[in-house]
Design goal:
mainly alpha; 3 helices
Length: about 90
């Protein structure tokens, strides 16, 4: 499967937002797309930081940047996990 274009992603995200706003997401497809898109942004930051770290010969400043983006990704995961548990009445 080929990667969607930026325009295709933007259109899909816009439709997903409307579906959620209108309460018309019976199979949670829109919720899943929006959540995965949000999380993917953090993971792409981690990948870029890893690549910079490796290219730099594992420099200390790049190592610190890598640690920061990994922590941001972890925090985002925790936030979304808490939101999901709250939606289920577990939080």
């Amino acid at each position: 499967m080929s990667k969607p274009t930026e325009q295709e992603v933007a259109a899909a995200l816009e439709l997903a937002k409307r579906m959620r706003e209108q309460g018309k997401d019976p199979q949670f497809i829109a919720k899943s797309l929006l959540s995965h898109h949000y999380r993917l942004g953090y993971l792409e930051d981690v990948l870029q930081a890893v690549e910079r770290f490796l290219r730099s010969g594992m420099a200390e400043d790049e190592h610190q940047r890598l640690l920061k983006v990994v922590e941001r990704a972890r925090q985002a995961e925790e936030r979304t996990a808490k939101q999901n548990s709250n939606e289920l009445g577990l939080g």
